[in-house]
Amino acid sequence: MAGIDSTVPSPAHTVAPAPAAPDAPAVASPHAPGAVLQDRLAGWVSDLTTLHELTERLVRTDTLDEALQELLRAGAALVGARRGLVVLEPGDGQGPDTTIGLGLARADLGHIETVPRSAMSYGRILDGLPGGDGEITEPDLLGEDGLDPRHREVAARLGYAASYALALSTEDAGRLGAAVWLYDEPAEPAERQRHLIGLYTRYATEHLARLVEVERTRAAMRTMTDELLPARLPRMGGVQLAVRHSTGPRGGGDWYDALPLPDAALGLAVGSVTGSGPSAVAAMGRLRASLRAYAVMEGEDPVAVLSDLELLLRLTEPARSATALFAYCEPALRKITLAGAGHSPPLLIGERRTEFVETSVSAPLGMLACWEAPSVELTAEAGETVLLYTDGLLHRTGDPTDRAFARLHAAAAGVPRALRQDPEAVVDHVLRAVLPDGLDRDDSDEDVVLLAARFA
To answer: 329, 335 in Cβ contact below 8 A?
Structure first.
């Protein structure tokens, strides 16, 4: 049969028949060649079906943590273990490095990490020590005379008596890590179990290698985006600032800025460039740098700032559009003059009001031959906070636009009075209320920016 390895040992459920009674009628012997082959074929088909189901579950994982968890679960089922851990430590030193357990709490993993690395099977595999090639079977840990004392203590504390470890490596990517499954009693996988887990891990490691590259790309995009955004927010009298920012896994074009301007003024900006990936991140960096220059020269006129930015975008990035909002703030007067281009309105939070600032409807930059929109002026009361944000915050909710705005308004209105004196606490409360699952979810491509300015 195509695809079946004839060297695989016969299935474990193939057993010898019971002896027949002397007077029993003659029957076909189960050891007849046809019966033995049929039994073996049935076992192979069962094994192949199991491997197919497990690899199907693995391929549906699209994050590294999910794939590592699935590897542990599938491996435990194949070798008959209950617990395990996988140590991801790519040999090229570029990361990501992580340790994930199955049936082991964080404290349990901490205990295991106190054992000298050379005394653990995964350590011998990862460090290339003698006996660390391929697989390591330790069928009776507590019965070994040369077992490291600390390893013996940890094994007794956690209640495991045997282990089976496999290297995770591919021909192209090299060593990625090691997986270890733990048994509660002295035991080791049978020959057929080792063959099946070997087949599975070869496929799983290729999948992990692809996810490692994806994770590295995402990390590089996050680093590039962070480097293009302000390293710190300015400190100025009369205003306190706080910001939260998250880049989507593909790298997006959401940005923010806060820069001191002449005459003790402050410029605040948020925006979003269309697209994702390195080109969108680069475009975002160019747009933000240009806005800073325009703000220094003519920041008191936000419409002029955005008009110049629109002209630059249309000439240098004709295939892109962008939304933007720029606010010229005079902290001593608590006066704000702002203009927006296709951007969501700011939200004002105070003791007596929580309301969206009414801004004029305008097109995003780069969408019209000539962009123009009037500016809006407002005066904040002492202690009030202005929230600027990108559309990604609304999109991450998964709600229709009107419900997402209502959700944001309710979150802002619900900030406890004791927290309203601290813009850091305000943005954290709003994010928890709007995005209960957290800001750094991997299942969303949306960037998020939330910038808060509290006026004294």
So the answer is: yes
